[in-house]
Amino acid sequence: MAHSAPTTPTARPPGGDETSIGLLVQSAMADVSTLIRNEVELAKAEIGRSAKKAGISVAAFAVAGVMLAFAGIYFFVFVAEIITWAGLERWLAYLIVSVALGGAAGMAALVGVRLIKKVEKPERTMESLRELPEVMHREAPGTRRREVPLVNNGEVKLHGDSYVV
Fold first, then answer.
1. Range of the domain at 49
2. 98 found inside a domain
3. pLDDT tens-digit readout, 150-160
């Protein structure tokens, strides 16, 4: 036991119940404080190991990506050489491969632009940020200029046509 409260009933001073309760509370607080410090240290150690493993994993994926990019370059050189075997001039074969890659890149860019346009703005956040100066206005104790928002299962109830409460 971490606390040092007297164990025999005769060792208690007068009014001993209050003193022993105080000692027990003090001891419990010290134990809780030590426990929390130890848990924080354990979490730091575990997170440190996890972060190191994650960093090594990310580096391995980066190396794999670079190697794949080089492999892609050599693959398209191979495709151009295959076209050359078909009887076309080498420069024409490389031009065909380059135009095909440029076309694929253009298509990917178009898809990206269309998907970006479909991304929704965080309307509720923007609206609440616009109202922040008004919300931060200090009010007299016990008075409220605005309704308290109603939240049910993580959903904020819409007041009228806006989320502002």
1. 17-119
2. yes
3. 667 767 666 66
Residue with tokens 């409460």: 165
Q: pLDDT tens across 35-90, in order?
A: 888 888 888 887 888 888 888 999 999 999 999 999 999 999 999 999 999 889 99
pTM of the model: 0.44
What's the first-to-final CA gap in the chain, in angstroms? 53
Residues 6+ away with beta carbon under 8 Å from 151? 157
Q: Does some domain include residue 151?
A: no
Contacts of 93 (CB under 8 A, 6+ apart): 80, 81, 83, 84
Residue 21 counted as domain residue: yes
The total of structural domains in the chain comes to 1
User: Does 156 reside within a domain?
Assistant: no
Q: Are 20 and 5 in contact (CB under 8 A)?
A: yes
